[in-house]
């Protein structure tokens, strides 16, 4: 009986690192966003632009999400590249980092910059 318990403990120590692999990435690691037009991703991008506009007094208008990753932190961290225009027809790309905490129903803009 004691030998079986020791064997199970050893087996669990061997398998534990394998359990942390999720959808081709490590748990907690950044994963590429596959569907950039997903309504939640678009909502997060629009939130980032809205918050940036409030803080900077700019008037950026959302065009599309160009690329992005998500990472599970204390919530979901979105690293997004967003195409937006400012008044004219010229479109520029911006990098935004947003952390969303669904259980608190909150989002926060961590950074926003032109690239």
From TrEMBL:
Domain Cystatin: 25-115
UniProt entry keywords in alphabetical sequence: Protease inhibitor, Signal, Thiol protease inhibitor
Stored CDD domains: CY (cd00042)
SMART domains noted in UniProt: CY
Superkingdom in the source lineage: Eukaryota
Species, as recorded: Camelina sativa
Keyword Signal attributed: yes
Signal sequence coordinates: 1-24
Name of the protein in its database record: Cysteine proteinase inhibitor 4-like
Gene3D superfamilies found in the cross-reference section: 3.10.450.10
Encoding gene (name): LOC104723470
